[in-house]
Write a structure and sequence with these properties.
The complex is a heterodimer of chains A (about 500) and B (about 110).
Chain A (H helix, E strand, L loop, with lengths): L1 H41 L7 H11 L1 H13 L23 E4 L5 H27 L7 H28 L19 E2 L4 E4 L8 H19 L9 H24 L4 H5 L7 H19 L15 H19 L8 H29 L4 H15 L8 H19 L1 H6 L7 H19 L2 H4 L5 H29 L6 H6 L1 H6 L5
Antiparallel strand pairs in A: 1-3, 2-3
Helix pairs in contact in A: 1-2, 4-5, 4-6, 4-10, 5-6, 5-7, 6-7, 6-9, 7-9, 7-17, 9-15, 9-17, 10-11, 10-12, 11-12, 11-13, 12-13, 12-15, 13-15, 15-17
Chain B lengths: L2 H21 L5 H6 L1 H13 L3 H14 L10 H4 L9 H11 L15
Classes of the chains: A mainly alpha (about 500), B mainly alpha (about 110).
Chain lengths: ~500, ~110
């Protein structure tokens, strides 16, 4: 027994020594990567031949160094005065997707973004489906799950056909171009060793960026399902989601996340979707709840949740998946992604505790649903701030999220008197607004290099509220005039599981 | 939390189990506790069944919920939804014991899930 122990100690020492040495390796790698980065935009301006230009620049770069190194040898006696040249102006950043060589792709970034894409999809199916299914009555569990699943499928196709192009192609400041309709132009040419990249994410293939953004486009309308749960026609829901994704989500994503969008140009900070996803879904849910009206028996009958265990499982999946949502929004496997993950976790934990404490004080008992709701509130509120604030800022956002979202889902809801079935506005709308505003206050320039402005943040929130609210109302009105919005009262009493799907849970 | 509410839920739970097992009929316990018309229909079903336990439970439920014959199923008075009685831990335990499923507390889920 003694010999293996000694061997184990020696091996441990070797492993430890290799870890101690490793920082120097990374320290060397980091400047190299930093030096490589400025070269990347060089490739951008001429989209077609960008790769060649980049390659020339990379080859040409060492030449001056070699000449200067050789100079002292060639002329040792009278040292000529060194010629001071102004450093070349940095190349302009790319403004459109372009074709580049595969060696410009960063495998670490790509691996992380592939992983993040899977994590964000996990948030919707099954995360959000379980989260919602546990909160509706037993007779509507299948219905909510079917709606979330169907939204995933519909939005995926809409995104492929036109959504991605409208959201992420350069066009006007308000609406993207049509260069990627049906994803034409998004290429990978194995034999030529070339691949297209998006100008906002130059180290990963454009296909990965498109897929990552697709998962955001999926979860945003899927969140709205919670507002009209237990009463909307399935056919109306499908039409609404297709139109809403195309006419509401994609333009707002363009405003904020496409570098030429008007809110992006103005300096609005939204790291992972505080306005684009949560304020947007929140106000859409608010309008849906109003236009569909209250469920039969709302306010007079209890609507007991089917199974809060499912809700907790869904909330946990949302929490885990949110690391892909927020840390993935760095679009790189780097320090900012790590900081985004850290603040996401901190804010979430504190928001859950805050909600729990408030509920404990007000109602006398802390509930599991309260803990889950507080966690989601924290995740929502930290979303716009994730790549901008430090861990102390995350504490502030966590407390604010717990307090304001508890108020939004209880007092505000009763004050307004609308039937937002699962509190989409109370949590996502209120949490998104709180997070977006606090991002402007708590932004840490050391992390992001950005300055925050409360006025700009408020402008982004206001624009999203108005545009999304009005467009949602218009879309719902059109659907109401054609296929109708609500199931009949009898179908609603029977439950949508039976009346819409002829299925039920046992 | 009144003791009678606990008893109502307990009786409804036992009725639910017997109806499901012997007559293959499903009832909604919470709805029966909140709506007298529905509760009367449950009582009528129990009374019409050739089952001594169900008949006894129907009588007991009628007494507990004060289901007077004046309240006819479908009448305006019956359709009007009375405010459901609050339910606390004792009721939940009683219902859970009878039905095997935990029952949520009433007022908590009126007007919102949170």
């Amino acid at each position: 027994m003694a010999l293996p122990s000694v061997a184990a100690i020696v091996l441990s020492g070797l492993v430890l020594a290799s870890f101690i040495e490793s920082p120097s390796t990374y320290a060397q790698a980091a400047p190299a990567a930093a030096a490589a980065d400025p070269a990347a935009p060089v490739a951008a301006p001429p989209p077609a031949d960008g790769a060649a230009a980049s390659g020339d620049a990379a080859v040409a770069a060492p030449a001056p160094d070699a000449a200067s190194a050789a100079a002292p040898v060639a002329a040792p006696a009278p040292a000529p005065a060194p010629k001071v040249e102004a450093p070349p102006a940095p190349p302009p950043p790319p403004t459109a997707p372009y074709l580049t060589t595969v060696d410009k792709i960063n495998s670490g970034d790509t691996a992380w973004m592939l992983t993040s894409t899977g994590l964000v999809l996990l948030m919707t199916i099954p995360g959000l489906a379980l989260f919602y299914a546990g909160m509706v009555r037993k007779k509507n569990v299948i219905s909510v799950m079917a709606q979330v699943f169907a939204v995933t499928c519909i939005v995926s196709i809409v995104w492929m056909i036109a959504g991605y192009s409208i959201a992420f192609m350069p066009g006007s400041p308000y609406f993207g171009g049509f260069e990627r309709i049906l994803l034409f132009g998004m290429d990978f040419m194995k034999d030529a060793g070339k691949v297209t990249v998006h100008h906002a994410a130059t180290t990963i293939p454009e296909s990965v960026y498109m897929m990552y953004q697709m998962t955001f486009a999926i979860i945003t309308p899927a969140l709205v399902v919670g507002a009209f749960a237990e009463r909307m026609k399935f056919s109306a829901m499908i039409l609404f989601m297709a139109l809403w994704s195309l006419l509401v989500y994609s333009p707002i994503a363009h405003w904020v996340w496409e570098p030429g969008g008007w809110l992006a140009t103005m300096g609005a900070l939204d790291f992972a979707g505080g306005t684009v996803v949560h304020v947007n879904a929140g106000i859409a849910g608010f309008v849906c709840a109003f236009m569909l009206g209250k469920r039969v028996g709302f306010g007079s009958e209890p609507f007991p949740p089917f199974n809060l265990g499912l809700t907790m499982a869904g909330a946990a999946m949302l929490w885990v998946g949110w690391f892909g949502f927020n840390a993935g929004s760095a679009v790189a496997a780097d320090g900012r992604a790590g900081m985004a993950m850290a603040v996401t976790h901190i804010a979430t934990a504190l928001a859950a505790l805050t909600w729990m404490a408030v509920e404990w004080g007000v109602r006398g008992k802390p509930s599991l649903l309260g803990l889950c709701s507080g966690a989601v509130a924290g995740l929502v509120a930290i979303t716009p701030a994730a790549g901008f604030v430090n861990p102390r800022g995350a504490l502030v956002i966590g407390v604010a999220a717990g307090l304001f979202c508890y108020w939004g889902a209880t007092s505000l809801k009763r004050m307004i008197g609308y039937d937002d079935s699962l509190d989409v506005f109370g949590i996502h709308g209120v949490g998104g607004i709180v997070g977006a505003l606090l991002t402007g206050v708590l932004v840490d320039k050391g992390i992001s290099g950005s300055d925050g402005s409360l006025i700009v943040q408020a402008t982004a929130i206001g624009a999203t509220l108005v545009y999304s609210g009005v467009m949602t109302a218009i879309i719902l009105t059109l659907i109401k005039m054609t296929v109708g919005l609500r199931v009949s009262e009898e179908e609603e009493r029977d439950g949508l599981d039976i009346s819409s799907h002829e299925e039920m849970v046992h | 939390m009144s003791a009678s509410s606990t008893e109502i839920f307990a009786v409804l739970g036992r009725i639910h189990v017997l109806l499901r097992r012997d007559l293959n009929r499903i009832t909604d316990i919470e709805w029966a506790s909140a709506n007298k018309a529905y509760a009367m229909e449950v009582v009528r079903l129990c009374a019409s069944a050739n089952h001594p336990d169900l008949k006894a439970l129907a009588i007991r439920l009628s007494e507990l919920m004060e289901l007077s014959p004046a309240v006819k199923p479908g009448s305006a008075a019956a359709v009007r939804n009375p405010a459901p009685a609050p339910m606390g831990p004792a009721t939940e335990a009683a219902v859970a014991e009878v039905t095997g499923h935990a029952a949520p507390s009433g007022p908590r889920y009126i007007g919102g899930v949170r």
